[in-house]
Amino acid sequence: MSDSQGVKGAVFGLSAAALFGLSAPVAKLLLPGSTPLMLAALLYLGGGLGLSGLGWVLRARASAPRAVGREARLGRQDVPLVLAIILCGGVVGPVLMLVGLQRMSGVAGALLLNLEGPFTIVLALLVFGEHLGRAGLMSAGAILLGASVLGVQQGELQGDVLGVLALAGACLSWAVDNNLTQRVSLKDPMAIARLKALGAGTCSLVLALLTGQRVPALPLVGAALLLGFVSYGVSIVLDAQALRLLGAAREAAYFATAPFVGALAAVPLLGEHLRPTDALAGGLMAVGVVLLLRERHSHLHAHEALEHEHLHVHDAHHHHAHAPGVAMSEPHSHAHRHEPLAHAHSHVSDLHHRHEH
């Protein structure tokens, strides 16, 4: 990966984590007037509806030709992946989480929910062909250890086997969601986030209504939709960009910092106090982030022939002719073919760099 790509991906990933982390203390202020499932539905719907409105505004103001600077559209071939993303991340994951939290103490639940990061990394490495060297694993390990420390608080570790399996299953569902989202991350990130949020919000709303839960008061609905736009909609867009640039394994490490941002925000919003374990968690995460930013992975590698479509510029990986009518201004998006290529440079396991080591 180039230095600029790594820094840009880290900024996207950490920003996505920060926006999502902020949602925890704010949502806690809204919970007395709603149920967890209904609030989750409103947050996701706020993200989807907000992105839909933002997309309409951007399209209305755009003056450049459609092929110039526009992301590649999702196509029919992407439908199965998008449906799987919505199912795993918006239906199975939340339902299993609710089942698990009902059967576990708060401390046990907080610790078990940290499994999403390790599960994402394991799937990325063993199933989806990503690579994370020793330095990357140590960096990610420091961040994930910090997240685990953050979950340690006063209270009892109580629960049963079904609760543990349900929470672990929720984290596994979200890990599959993360890796599948990475597979379509070369397409328009706003479209991905919009469909993901609307799909998850609709499914959660239907589940809430079927179980007899009522829609809360209008002011709370408005607040939840606004929070959802920022902490779910914009966050998912930034996260999709991080997945594109870094791969799912590294993105999972950066996104694991979200609980620490939530803990910091809870101090002024909820009147809570930072504990010594919070400082330890923050220190571990900071060390991990710095090490991950400094990580370099470079070797001679071969690119096989590949055909796809995404927004790009003509860099070392994109030397190709253009069909008549394709705009030459960069960046641009069109279907193109990568010819076989062998070279050495710093890189990560993005969708252009899946090779054996």
Describe the structure in your own words.
The structure is a single chain. The protein has two domains: 3-299, no CATH class; 304-346, no CATH class. The protein contains twelve helices and four strands, in the order ααααααααααααββββ. It has helices spanning 3-30, 36-61, 79-102, 106-112, 116-126, 134-150, 161-183, 189-210, 218-246, 248-255, 258-270, 276-294; strands spanning 298-303, 306-312, 332-338, 341-346. Helix 5 packs antiparallel against helix 10 (248-255). The two termini are 16 Å apart.
Task: Set down the secondary structure blueprint.
Layout: H1 3-30, H2 36-61, H3 79-102, H4 106-112, H5 116-126, H6 134-150, H7 161-183, H8 189-210, H9 218-246, H10 248-255, H11 258-270, H12 276-294, E1 298-303, E2 306-312, E3 332-338, E4 341-346
Antiparallel strand pairs: 1-4, 2-3
Helix pairs in contact: 1-9, 1-10, 1-11, 2-8, 2-9, 3-7, 3-8, 5-7, 5-10, 6-10, 6-12, 8-9, 9-10
Summarize the structure in short.
With 357 residues, this protein is mostly helical.
Kindly name the structural category. mainly alpha
What is the count of structural domains?
2
Largest sheet: 2 strands, antiparallel
Query: Which stretches are low in confidence, meaning pLDDT under 50 for 5 or more residues running?
Result: 64-68
Helical residue percent band: 55-70%
Which descriptors apply to this entry?
12 helices; two-stranded antiparallel sheet; 357 residues; mainly alpha
